[in-house]
Design goal:
The structure holds 2 protein chains of 2 kinds. By secondary structure, chain A is mainly alpha-helical. Chain A has helices spanning about 5, 10-30, 35-45, 85-105, 105-120, 125-140, 145-170, 175-195, 200-205, 215-225, 230-260, and strands at about 50-55, 60-65, 75-80. Chain A contains 11 helices and 3 strands; from the N terminus they run αααβββαααααααα. In chain A, strands 1-2-3 form a 3-stranded antiparallel β-sheet, covered by helices on one side. In chain A, a hairpin with a 3-residue loop joins strand 1 (about 50-55) and strand 2. In chain A, about 45% of the residues are buried. In chain B, helix 1 (about 1-25) packs across helix 4 (about 85-90) and helix 2 (about 30-55) packs across helix 4. Classes of the chains: A mainly alpha, B mainly alpha. The interface between A and B is large, with 55 and 54 residues.
Chain lengths: ~260, ~160
């Protein structure tokens, strides 16, 4: 009888699907390219394959080659889902790749742990909303905003981030989401400017949109470029920059509506 | 004077910690990583404030603070078995030069709308001054935090290893 069947060893197709699933999950959760390659090739090695991987903004191309029999190889392309930052997935998959490597976990177990990891629930969205609003308010404090400015920023961020969460659930284009969210937040914070509440309404207006700054994609893009993955790094940079331009457009629109550009 | 600086640094660190917690939860990190990023943000931001107060340029001070965050994050990563970037990225976010970015855009808008060419020159100056500051601080943040990852690649990619 075939030894593969006795050991219940996975076929090359099954292995390739699992590995590219993991790579694409890491990519859409916000890992940088080097980490994706390291994690996935470590797992491929454990399953007895060599792996080559190309990461693009929209898709991943992966080839795995059987170590004992280099005639057995498979190439796959997988679409990457929209970026939805989730560092729990990055951290857990990274740990899973080491577990697989060090303890030689069987394929089925790895697959079931992977399913558990990606189906973990996110933090309660109302709690996130509150924490982000508080964060942006204290961010305003860091820029020497007074108490009234911080209060305005808190409510502006609350409204803006709420709009963002709701629009994200409806899968609206993320450039539109960022523009609208920046517009809502800066409109509310700008009211403080119009009525001259407190001593630093200017800082409140400036800080109201900062929760939208795509910090993680920006850092990832520079990290990718520094590590030699220039193409994907530039793609990430262009994406992040277009989001920043959208934030600026939203801010600019509400300043024009409130008549603040003359100040 | 020294007491005053320490008081300012404490307030600064506290607010940076709250800001880091809020910006961290957007990316849904593991629970213990949230607290680490709060601690790192507080240390980093207070350090930056101290350096600025003692006369260092803001982008250089940011670079030093970001490098410290990067080094400490690898240390913490080994302790809690979690990739360093999971908490080093959120702890950088309170240092993002938001106000400079805002003033850059404002300078651009004013330049665009101004009809007086002498005033327009002043706005252009504002635009370049604030824009370059924004750019340099951003670069300082990213390069500073990634230096430790580039210097110790083996270490930073094996922190989630338990055996």
């Amino acid at each position: 009888m075939d030894e593969n069947l006795v050991n219940n060893e996975p076929t090359i197709e099954e292995t390739a699907v699992l590995l590219i699933d993991i790579a694409s999950a890491l990519m859409s959760s916000g890992a940088h390219t080097m980490r994706i390659i390291q994690n996935v090739s470590r797992m491929a090695e454990t399953f007895g394959y060599e792996m080559d991987l190309s990461v693009f903004q929209m898709s991943i191309i992966m080839t795995i080659i059987r170590k004992e029999d280099s005639g057995k190889l498979l190439t796959q392309i997988r679409k990457i889902k929209n970026l939805h930052l989730n560092f729990t997935i990055v951290s857990d998959l990274s740990a899973l790749s080491w577990d697989t490597y060090d303890r030689h976990l069987p394929f089925n177990e790895v697959a079931s742990i992977y399913q558990q990891i990606i189906s973990k629930k996110r933090m309660n969205s109302w709690l996130v909303l509150f924490l982000v609003a508080a964060a942006n308010a204290s961010f305003c404090g860091l820029f020497k905003g007074d108490f009234m400015a911080m209060l305005f920023v808190f409510f502006a961020t609350f409204a803006g981030f709420f709009v963002k969460q709701e629009m994200m659930k409806k899968h609206i284009n993320h450039l539109v989401v960022f523009t609208t969210s920046a517009f809502v937040a800066s409109l509310l914070a700008g009211l403080g400017y119009v009525f001259q509440v407190g001593h630093t309404p200017e800082i409140a207006l400036a800080c109201s949109v900062l929760y939208l700054i795509p910090g993680v994609p920006l850092i990832n893009s520079i990290l990718d470029i520094l590590e030699g993955h220039v193409l994907i790094g530039i793609a990430r940079l262009v994406n992040a920059t277009s989001l920043i331009v959208c934030i600026a457009i939203g801010l600019f629109t509400s300043m024009l509506i409130l008549g603040l550009e003359k100040l | 004077m020294t007491v005053e600086i320490i008081r300012l640094m404490l307030i600064d660190g506290l607010m940076a910690a709250i800001a880091a917690i809020g910006f961290a939860v957007i990316s849904n990190p593991p629970r213990n990583a949230i607290f680490v990023s709060a601690i790192l943000a507080a240390l980093g931001h207070a350090l930056r404030l101290f350096l600025i107060k003692s006369g260092l340029d803001i982008s250089l001070a940011t670079f030093v603070a970001a490098t410290c965050i990067g080094l400490l994050s690898i240390l913490f990563a080994r302790i809690i078995h979690c990739p360093a970037e999971v908490f080093s990225f959120p702890s950088l976010l309170p240092m993002i030069p938001g106000l400079f970015a805002y003033r850059t855009i404002l300078g651009l808008i004013k330049f665009m709308q101004s009809t007086d060419s002498i005033k327009a020159q002043g706005f252009m100056l504002d635009f370049f001054h604030n824009g370059l500051t924004t750019l340099f601080i951003l670069m300082a943040l990213v390069v500073g935090v990634s230096l430790p990852i580039l210097f110790f690649p083996k270490l930073s990619f094996s922190v989630t290893r338990k055996y």
